[in-house]
Design brief:
Length: about 90
Amino acid sequence: MKTTFIAAALVAVLAPSVASASSSCPNVPRDQWMSDAQITEKAKGLGYEVRSLKAENGCLEAYAFDKQRNRVEVYFHPATGDVLRVKADD
């Protein structure tokens, strides 16, 4: 019983850190990054209306509106344009 509880506690503590690591921004040289126009176009195709872009810890961060007109922050992989993370803009 005690072993099961300890194992469950470890999973609860470690799972969030693994999840956040999987969406972390990569270390990609700047000359391999997509242009702001390319990221904006990709975001538009995904249903986002981009208001501004900036580099943020290795990602391209877009301040945008989603399809429901909610303000969001979308983090893009700088070389592929893949969405790594989306969060509500506070």
